[in-house]
Automatic annotation (TrEMBL):
<keyword id="KW-0805">Transcription regulation</keyword>
<dbReference type="InterPro" id="IPR000792">
    <property type="entry name" value="Tscrpt_reg_LuxR_C"/>
</dbReference>
<feature type="modified residue" description="4-aspartylphosphate">
    <location>
        <position position="60"/>
    </location>
</feature>
<keyword id="KW-0804">Transcription</keyword>
<dbReference type="InterPro" id="IPR058245">
    <property type="entry name" value="NreC/VraR/RcsB-like_REC"/>
</dbReference>
<dbReference type="InterPro" id="IPR016032">
    <property type="entry name" value="Sig_transdc_resp-reg_C-effctor"/>
</dbReference>
<dbReference type="InterPro" id="IPR039420">
    <property type="entry name" value="WalR-like"/>
</dbReference>
<keyword id="KW-0238">DNA-binding</keyword>
<dbReference type="Pfam" id="PF00196">
    <property type="entry name" value="GerE"/>
</dbReference>
<dbReference type="Pfam" id="PF00072">
    <property type="entry name" value="Response_reg"/>
</dbReference>
<protein>
    <submittedName>
        <fullName>Response regulator transcription factor</fullName>
    </submittedName>
</protein>
<keyword id="KW-0597">Phosphoprotein</keyword>
<feature type="domain" description="HTH luxR-type">
    <location>
        <begin position="153"/>
        <end position="218"/>
    </location>
</feature>
<feature type="domain" description="Response regulatory">
    <location>
        <begin position="9"/>
        <end position="125"/>
    </location>
</feature>
<dbReference type="InterPro" id="IPR001789">
    <property type="entry name" value="Sig_transdc_resp-reg_receiver"/>
</dbReference>
<dbReference type="InterPro" id="IPR011006">
    <property type="entry name" value="CheY-like_superfamily"/>
</dbReference>
Length: 224
């Protein structure tokens, strides 16, 4: 259940009817999840979410009319956007990176076990990232030859204090709050405060987004 003790509202977006039906059937068996609608492409998803509220959107990547990456980018511009769980048939690093860059809270292969998908939905509904920072860093290292700093990202680093930049760099290395506290010889509560401040200043939603920003701003360089 969500914080309001109501079911997690989920929209399923995929251009294949059998895939949509399969996800909807699996989710219908969960007491804490309610499927509020289906769409067969990104534009239909945007139209659907004009009419109904969703906490989480299961979004295919490769669809006609509008793909899942573009639809995710547009959703993220809305006030209080839903969490987006991107699904792909292919173990494609570029798709996964594009999804995170667009604002998705996680990505899974379409053949992921049903319990893994259900768990990911619950994590996203709680406002957390499905992808651990360490996994995000490994992903970015693999696509580093195609990764160039985004315009204006390095300038945004100027919004941060020196200690906030230190914390961001350690988050990008995949360290937990406790590990960062040990590294900087400060209390874990202090790390949480710095992390909350820097994410607010940079308008980041979760730690995975923080790792992407750290790479795009040039604060962190890909591993050799």
């Amino acid at each position: 259940m969500t914080g309001t003790d109501r079911p997690i509202r989920v929209a399923v977006v995929d251009d294949q009817p059998l895939i949509r039906a399969g996800f909807s059937m699996v989710l219908a068996g969960q007491d804490d999840i309610e499927v509020v609608g289906e769409a067969e492409n990104g534009q239909q998803a945007l139209d659907l979410l004009d009419e109904v509220d969703a906490d989480v959107v299961i979004m295919d990547v490769r669809m006609p009319v509008m793909d899942g990456i573009r639809a995710t980018e547009r959703l993220m511009r809305r006030d209080s956007p839903p969490g987006v769980l991107v699904l792909t048939t292919f173990d494609d690093d570029e798709d996964a990176f594009a999804a995170l860059r667009a604002g998705a809270g996680g990505f899974l292969l379409k053949n992921a076990p049903a319990d893994q998908v259900v768990h990911a939905i619950r994590v996203l509904a709680a406002g957390e990232s499905v992808v651990a920072p360490r996994i995000t860093r490994l992903l970015l290292d693999r696509v580093s030859d195609r990764l160039s700093p985004a315009n204006g990202q390095s300038e945004r680093l100027g919004l941060l204090t020196g200690r906030e930049r230190d914390v961001l760099g350690l988050v990008a290395r995949g360290l937990s709050n406790a590990e960062i506290a040990a590294e900087l010889y400060v209390a874990e509560a202090t790390v949480k405060t710095h992390l909350g401040n820097l994410m607010a200043k940079l308008h980041l939603r979760d730690r995975a987004q923080a790792v992407v920003f750290a790479y795009e701003s040039g604060l962190v360089r890909p591993s050799p």
